[in-house]
Structure prediction request, 324 residues.
Amino acid sequence: MNYGKLGSTGLDVSPLALGCMTYGEPDRGSHPWTLPEAESRPLIKLAVDAGINFFDTANVYSDGTSEEIVGRALADYTRRDDVVIATKVHGRMHDGPNGAGLSRKAIFAELDNSLRRLGTDYVDLYQIHRFDPSTPLEETLEALHDAVRAGKVRYLGASSMYAWQFSKALYLQQLNGFSRFVTMQDHYNLINREEEREMYGLCADQGIGVLPWSPLARGKLARAWDETTSRSESDAFGKTLYGTFDADRRVSDAVGEVAADRGVSRAQIALAWVSRNPVVSAPIVGVGKPGHLEDALASLAIELTADEVESLESHYVPHPVVGF
Prediction:
């Protein structure tokens, strides 16, 4: 495994991050397709054994059980200093006031809850899962800075917002001497490339490491367009992201053609395309089967030719920005 820096930081991370939304008790939260602990642990161990050191979860994934499963597995399979654990805050974790959002109260409470579930004293990368327009941005940024100063967080990241919002946050952090966001986790794949004009110029200019979520478009780029899975049939959020443009099918078909010509899987081609973007530090990949991990690792060795890139990109049409 060849490790690289996370954005412009000194932190070494694997070129793939294991997306841990796949792991969680299926009767908790809104993801009935998740894998319970007994099925999750072998897959997490496979990732560890392959050299992946970057693990991304969130407090809202399966009502906190994702953090619990990941925390216990990493404690058993690794040393804490050898792994980079990322989690997120924003989504609703309990009923009533202050159960969601990015207020100082919510951040402090949910960070402590995440640390407890993960079984660790600190989080390597603490990310705001979405922008919170109902809380003054300075309040959120100061609370995050204080979490870093308290030793509970090593680095800060953001996710899924407009570039003007992220730019404002970076400006306020610099103005006030607050700890700075070093990553942007956002929606990016061959079917939706809007971040190339919305966010990535800012990230390149500011040295922000990008961690694309859904690099396989919820699996649509890893299989024939009309093929479904139990997850795709029950993934309400995923249904809001894809399928409204005829061009999307043509992009998917192009992935299949390039994959067939090379004799590799569609997933390898789609992931190789995401990783070739110079602002990308590590795509976040979901692994529900050993083959998913094999494809992700194999994608790292693929260098797409200019003709292949042209074939993959030529059918794209502008899309609305979605996923915020």
In short: The chain has a mean pLDDT of 95. The first strand starts at residue 4 and ends at 5. The first helix runs from residue 37 to 50.
